[in-house]
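Troubleshooting log. The previous structure file for this entry was overwritten by mistake, so regenerating from the original sequence record. Sequence copied from the archived sheet and checked twice against the printout by T.R.
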Amino acid sequence: MAGEASANSIKLAIVYSDSLKPTLRTIKGFRSTINKHHDGTVYFEHLLTTDVNEIEGQIAEIKKNNPVLIMTVGSYATEIISNRIKDKPIIFSAVLNPETSGFVESLHRPGGNITGSSLDIPPDIQFKYFKRVIKDLKSIGVLYSDETANLIPPAKVLAQQAGLKLHAIRITTPKDIPDALETLNTQVEAIWSVADANIYSPRSTRFILLNTLRSAKPFMGFSKNLVESGALFALDYDYKDIGRQSGKIALEVLSGKPPGSIPVAVPGIIWFHYNEKTADHIHVSIPEDLAAVAKEVYR
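Regenerated output below.
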């Protein structure tokens, strides 16, 4: 048994930037998937700091350990590692918008030495849920900036396929948001959102949530945190499952497949969250089948 474990032993590096529960669940999912196929795997875990000098020391340590591949958790760790290590396969996990972030050339053909699992739930799935929540929904609006501009054209196509017309307004500065929302309020029945740091600062997020409540526009948040703050509903993911997906991709790489040829994975387990108080306020009845399976209900 020990001989088998020794024969199958591999060295992997795991790089992350916090010890929060989602990160730890992601790592757990990754390790459990690898361990099923490679008994005796040796893991080198690195918790990144924000100090540049310390980071360079950590990079040197990773290179010294010489892992066969590196798994990163989150955008910060992925950016640090992908910018500094080009000769090792990198499998990222729990990253939002990896294409927009510049980590991959495209979701279907990442290119280079990197691929992984994202937190992005495909728009077509989001639109299907939106139509389940709001019966006879025909039009939705979205705010976007340069950061998320590339997401809009394919989203419009998917919305049309779902029987929806997507009105998108580009935001250049936060000052554009009030007029943009006023325009959308006259054009659409509900508001969809994409994770965009140029738009959803703490201050502007509060404004958007208050505006959609006052105008009684159903607002689909891009995270459960927005639901807790007042959005009508959002879809969420299981971080352990995200880690497992990265683990499956890592297994493909370990079998000899180039990482840049493996498509980026999307969440396989989707959870529904809704805000009961918001639903009552804007007179929306959450369908019983969705309410029954809701992961969290905010009141």
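Residues 21-37 form the longest helix (17 residues). Archived copy saved in two places this time.
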